[in-house]
Amino acid sequence: MTPTMFAEQPAKTTRWTPALPIALSALIALSAAACDRIWPTGAETQARDTAKPASTLAAVPVPSARPAHDAAAPPAPPQRMTGAQEAEFEAWIVRTYLGCWRAPAQPADSDPYVARVRLAFKPDGSLARAPKLVNPPSDPALKPQAKSVMQAVQACNPLSVPAQYRPFYEQWRTQTIQFNPQIASR
């Protein structure tokens, strides 16, 4: 490269022209006016409607101040039971199932068998799928206990869930219930 290539050229001056900001301002104003015609404000809608006879007001739909895609509010988070409500619900469900259970006598030489059953419910209180015995007994003498527990679950189906617990379905839709023969005998 030769030094002549970098010879100084006359400086170009850029002139600030007020026409560009004015043109942008005019464009924004026109856009806003167009939006107001498409989505009039509440005051404009009310002024337009009060000028019409009352008989035509019922037939005129009032446009929303916002576009339809913005009108949908985000879904509210699901409600949760308080600790006290959870305890009350668990006590209710255990009482209900124990009321349906006819526990056979346990063998005298065995430890008490407390069956645990996993349940899945539909919102109406009916079983969503077959109950599952979580801890099947290994002692054959305790098999009648397990069988009676499964019969009790079927006998209570569907549960009549009290109204105060229905909004909290997501919390009670799956439950594990213990069938303790010592509690049932009380």
Main features:
41% helix; 186 residues; 3-stranded antiparallel sheet; mainly alpha; elongated
Characterize the structure shown.
The model has no long low-confidence stretch (mean pLDDT 76). Helix content is 41%, strand content 8%. With 186 residues, the protein is mainly α. The longest helix is centred in the N-terminal third of the chain and has 20 residues, at 19-38.
Summarize the topology.
Blueprint: H1 19-38, H2 42-50, H3 54-57, H4 68-71, H5 83-100, E1 115-120, E2 132-133, H6 143-155, H7 169-172, E3 174-179, H8 181-184
Antiparallel strand pairs: 1-2, 1-3
The oligomeric state of the chains shown is single chain
Low-confidence stretches: none
Number of helices: 8
Overall morphology: elongated
SSE sequence, one letter per element: HHHHHEEHHEH
Largest sheet entry: 3 strands, antiparallel
Could you report the average pLDDT, rounded to the nearest whole number? 76
Radius of gyration: 37 Å
Strand order of the largest sheet: 2-1-3
- What fraction of the residues are assigned to beta strands by DSSP? 5-15%
